[in-house]
Amino acid sequence: MPFLILVYLFAYIDRANLSVAKLQMQGDLGFNDAIIGFGAGIFFIGYFLLEVPGTLIVERWSARKWLAGITIVWGIIATITGFLGVSFLSGGSHTQRFYVLRFLLGAAESGFFPGVIVYLSHWYPAAERARAKTYFMIAQPLAIMIGFALSRWILETVQWNGLAGWHWVFILEGLPSVVFGIATFFFLTDRPKDARWLAAEEKQWLIDELEKEARERTASGRVRITDALRQPATLLLIAIYFLIVSGNQGMIFFLPSLVDEMKVLPVIARTVVTMLPYLLGILAIYLAGSSAQRTGERRWHTAVPMFCSGIALALAILSGHQLASVIVFYCLAAGTSQAYLPSFWTLPTAYFGKAAAATAIGLINSFGSLGGFAGPYIFGYLRTATGSYRAGLWCLVGCSLLAGLLATRIKTYVSKT
User: Fold this and answer.
1) How confident is the model at residue 92 (pLDDT cuts 50, 70, 90)?
2) For the domain that residue 164 is a member of, what is the CATH number?
3) What domain range includes position 194?
4) What pTM was estimated for this model as a whole?
5) Most distant CA pair in the chain: distance in Å?
6) How many domains does the chain fold into?
7) Residue 404: is its pLDDT beyond 60?
8) Do the Cβ atoms of 25 and 351 come closer than 8 Å?
9) Is pLDDT of 227 > 70?
10) Per-residue DSSP letters for 38-97?
11) Contact at 8 Å (CB) between 8 and 69?
């Protein structure tokens, strides 16, 4: 688990560091917010492509080999992004190359998150799965918090070989993923039966528990790929995740820009402000995951965080120029926006079995992640069109509140199907 968290930490940093690099990158390459928003969003078009195949590969082949390969590939692509604008990286305009690299990064990274969700089901019985996913999900806000600070430090201080700081943001944060990808191949163990580091009694107990759950899923008849495709519950979860990702990714990619406009604050203070929401997010994920593990409840542990995030963001907008209130409500909005994660991602493996669960996770993450295109693109377009962040922020509020409203239907909807 610590190793998976570490790899996912750098995966998320490689995805989100554009939000900081753009502060210099836009001036050097002539990009406006619409271009940055489209580039942030096109990542998720690439991300869309390998979701379902990736989960099935982990289920039926090898998590170790699959996760190692894609980690190395996305690390290389993230590093190459740092050479945009350098003469030897030619062919097409800066904008076209930027779009291509972001698309490829999304395609390379697409199989990791859903692959790990399936992989955890190979190791953790259902009773422990929410706790395990809580620990793994903490990597998201932790990555954003560390990534913002690290990226800002590189941006402001590193200018080697005539390259501006934003080049080194991508290069220095992309190379570790290549190293971790190589380590993944040698470190991970695919299944409990392959674990030489478990005592024989422990290994057999775990195998028996997981096989017992698999038999129960088989008895319920929800194990085939087609079972995931034809269940209305899958469509509901896709819609919820699409709205969540639209709101969250729009906030992640433009929060540094919003904070950077608070010119009355020094650079260090602005960096701290961008980190605070995700420090709160770590606490929110842990508390929500622990509560879900203790109570077994999933519907309200998904819905309530989204209502809180939408309401807090609305209050931040309505606070106008009252800086202290704006900062507090931004922190609450971004912090609570991550708390749905442990509960939400236990639903597919709780409801489906084997290939059906892998397919459902892939479908939810792939179609839902298209919100990662919609959110940043619409936000960037509205910012360029109106000259203000206000319209885009209200759009994110709507996404969060509607996601919460749909999430209130999870338990009822699933139980009827």
Assistant:
1) low
2) 1.20.1250.20
3) 2-416
4) 0.72
5) 65
6) 1
7) yes
8) no
9) no
10) HHHHHHHHHHHHTHHHHHHHHHHS-HHHHHHHHHHHHHHHHHHHTTTTSTTS-SS-HHHH
11) no
